[in-house]
Design goal:
Layout: E1 4-10, E2 19-25, E3 33-43, H1 45-52, E4 69-76, E5 88-91, E6 103-107, E7 111-113, H2 120-125, H3 127-140, E8 148-151, H4 157-168, E9 172-176, H5 182-188, E10 192-194, H6 201-204, E11 208-213, H7 219-223, E12 227-235, H8 245-250, E13 254-257, H9 264-275, E14 283-288, H10 292-301, E15 307-311
Parallel strand pairs: 8-9, 8-11, 9-10, 11-12, 12-13, 14-15
Antiparallel strand pairs: 1-2, 3-4, 3-6, 3-15, 4-5, 5-7
Helix pairs in contact: 3-4
């Protein structure tokens, strides 16, 4: 293995221009770690929020951005028994691991075997958004068959997976999305769609059991109007959800933010849905790692369907 590698490094907070394509030392594994040769990573809204300095998640400059990784195990630590060199894996390693690179050191406990039905591009797009959707709907809201589930930003990274997870659990799925994304979402299983540019979702959606908010701002508090008594609002916007648990409780409702956590077990459950044909990962575009700034510009502009992937 080479001693050096290419990576994206950030030495200051700011716009996409602060992302530098550089050469740095290749990581080596600790006793409980694996070193993964990265074949794909992906861009999430949290990436550019952290880059700009507006996210609550603390980071120390300089750092390598990125949460998601898919690739091949190159080295294993002395205490690692789950993986061997050559294994195909994916995950969202901790701590903030810096996956915009050719190689990543990751705790073996955070990684899962890549689903056979996914190529590395889609496997690299799945972890953080898939875990967020799964932990919100299954872990927190504990969705049940027959429930009405409203998913905001349904065509986005978290949203398009949440639609499919909810359908796999037998829910009736309502999504908010531009009309240009309605055919895409119907193909994923959405039952009702609301074009938020021409219709107020708070009026159009009624008798909802669970809301997954991927937007924040006023969407959080307005979503309370759609819920049945005892209904549950879960927000993936943990830094600015636009609503509080107290506001929800005053109306006989529940509110929880989801702070996504690494989980090999949850990734394996998502992998089972993938291998059963119940979960597809949509990648809008794949860009070379050196074009990370362009990918951030595109993500920050909004309206990305599914995910953007970076390939070293």
């Amino acid at each position: 293995m080479p001693a050096r590698m290419h990576a994206i490094r950030q030495r200051a907070f700011g716009g996409p221009e602060v992302l530098e394509f550089v050469e740095v030392d290749r990581p080596v594994p600790g006793p409980d770690d694996v070193v993964v040769r990265v074949l794909a990573t992906s861009v999430n809204p949290a990436d550019w929020k952290i880059r700009s300095g507006t996210a609550a998640l603390p980071v120390e400059l300089p750092f390598v951005p990125g949460f998601d990784v898919a690739g091949v195990v190159e080295q294993v630590g002395d205490q690692v028994t789950r993986f061997r060199p050559g294994d195909e894996v994916h995950g969202m390693p901790t701590p903030f691991a810096g996956t915009y690179a050719q190689y990543v050191r990751a705790p073996a406990a955070d990684m899962a075997t890549k689903p056979a039905a996914l190529d590395h591009i889609r496997a690299g797009a799945l972890p953080s958004v898939g875990l967020t959707a799964w932990q919100a709907l299954v872990g927190i809201a504990r969705i049940q068959a027959g429930q009405r589930v409203l998913i905001h930003a349904a065509a986005g990274g978290i949203g398009h997976l949440a639609v499919q997870i909810a359908k796999a659990y037998g829910a009736h799925v309502i999504g908010t999305a531009r009309a240009t994304n309605h055919a895409f979402l119907r193909d994923l299983g959405a039952d009702e769609l609301i074009d938020y540019t021409v219709e107020d979702f708070a009026t159009a959606a009624r008798d909802v059991d669970v809301v997954l908010d991927n937007i924040g701002d006023t969407y959080g508090v307005r979503s309370l109007d759609t819920l049945v008594p005892g209904g549950h609002l879960v927000s993936a916007i943990w830094d600015h959800p636009g609503v509080t648990a107290e506001q929800a409780a005053q109306r006989g409702l529940r509110f929880d933010p989801v702070m996504v956590a690494p989980s090999a077990a949850d990734l394996e459950e998502l992998g089972k849905l993938v291998d059963r044909g119940l979960l597809r990962v949509h990648v809008e575009a794949t860009l070379p790692l050196r074009d990370a700034a362009k990918a951030h510009e595109r993500s920050q502009a909004g309206s990305v369907r599914g995910k953007l992937v970076l390939v070293p």
